[in-house]
Specification:
Layout (H helix, E strand, L loop, with lengths): L1 H20 L6 H4 L12 H31 L43
């Protein structure tokens, strides 16, 4: 597994370098000091770098999928299942507020009637 991670990181860095080495499609390369001649020839660099980019991209995708697949097998659990469940509200409806008894004197409230739970 460690070898695969090291290979993946190496391919990432190499892929970035190969992409940056590719010549542009327009004339913008000339303004930044690029010339039409290279060590691979005028057309050889494009073909070689394009093929190298394709091979590196395929290796990058394969290593990404393999590393992800292995990681999924290592950790199949969820982080949410270990938390305690939230307390739920009781299913019984709320009891209405107590009202004064009809025989209470004016201005005095009757004692509340206890309810059973």
């Amino acid at each position: 597994m460690t070898f695969l991670v090291i290979l993946h990181i190496f391919i990432c860095v190499f892929l970035v370098c190969v992409i940056l080495l590719q010549p542009g499609k327009g004339d913008a390369g000339v303004t930044f000091g690029s010339s039409s001649q290279s060590i691979f020839g005028s057309k050889g660099a494009s073909n070689f770098l394009t093929k190298t980019t394709t091979v590196c991209a395929v290796i990058f995708l394969v290593t990404s999928l393999v590393l992800t697949r292995n990681r999924m097998h290592e950790f199949t659990g969820s982080v949410i299942k270990d938390e305690p469940s939230a307390p739920t509200a009781p299913a019984t409806p709320a009891t209405p507020a107590t009202s004064p008894a009809p025989d209470a004197k004016k201005g005095e409230a009757a004692a509340p009637v206890p309810t059973k739970k």
